[in-house]
Every structure is written in C-alpha cells, then in structure tokens.
Amino acid sequence: MGKTIVTMIKKLKAWLKAREEGKKLESWFFVTCDSESIYRHIAAPRKEQWNDKFRLSEIERIYFEATDYMFSDDIHFFITESPASYVIPTEAKGGQALWNLVMERRSF
C-alpha cells in the first residue's frame, strides 16, 4: 500500500507541474518578426492551435497596456484594415524582444 501512495503522489505532482506549465504564456504563445511582418503562433493547452500575422507597414498605432503583477502586460497593434487590435502579451515567447524592437525603432 505504501508504494501505491508514493506512486499516486508522484503522479499528482507531475500533473500539477504540467498544469502550472500550461499557465505560463511563454510555453504556448509565440511571437516572431522579420523586416516585413509580425507573426503569432498560439498553441494553448487543450485548444486548437492557430497562427496569424500582420505587416509592419499596416501598423497605425501601438498601445501598451500595463497591468498589475498578476497578469502579463499587453502590446496592442492597431492596423489600417481592422478596428480591432492584435494583442501580444509581453510574457509570450518573444514578447519582450518585440517590445524592445518597438522601443528601439521609437514606434511607440
């Protein structure tokens, strides 16, 4: 019986660790860019994956949304052909590098 409890505890710890990892944006939200476009790849746990992109030349306005310590800050990119913004969390994989690029180019 002792071995069974130890095995159950190990499985529970592994499940909890996997659950926590799934909550981290950097493990499922990816952003990259090149000289022409910004690309998003989202592979949220237990959700269908999707990708999109928008061209740098289409950006009309950039808005930085600072939140409290419990949530990621967000970068909103407003483009010419859409009333809605493309949102990229700074905690996404590549999010901080993208924000640094925005600041270097003085696009803010």
Can you walk me through this structure?
With 108 residues, the protein is of the alpha+beta class. It has one domain (25-104). Helix content is 30%, strand content 32%. The protein has a 3-stranded antiparallel beta sheet with strand order 1-2-3, with no helix packed on it. A 3-stranded antiparallel beta sheet has the order 4-5-6. A hairpin with a 5-residue loop joins strand 5 and strand 6 (85-89). It is elongated and about 65 Å long. The termini are far apart. The model has no long low-confidence stretch (mean pLDDT 86).
**Count of individual beta strands:** 6
Level of helix content? Answer: 25-40%
Sheet having the most strands: 3 strands, antiparallel
Question: Whole-Å distance between the termini?
Answer: 62 Å
Sheet/helix structural class: alpha+beta
Estimate the strand proportion: 25-35%
For the record, the count of structural domains works out to 1
The strand line-up of the biggest sheet is 1-2-3
* Average pLDDT: 86
Radius of gyration: 18 Å
The geometry reads as elongated
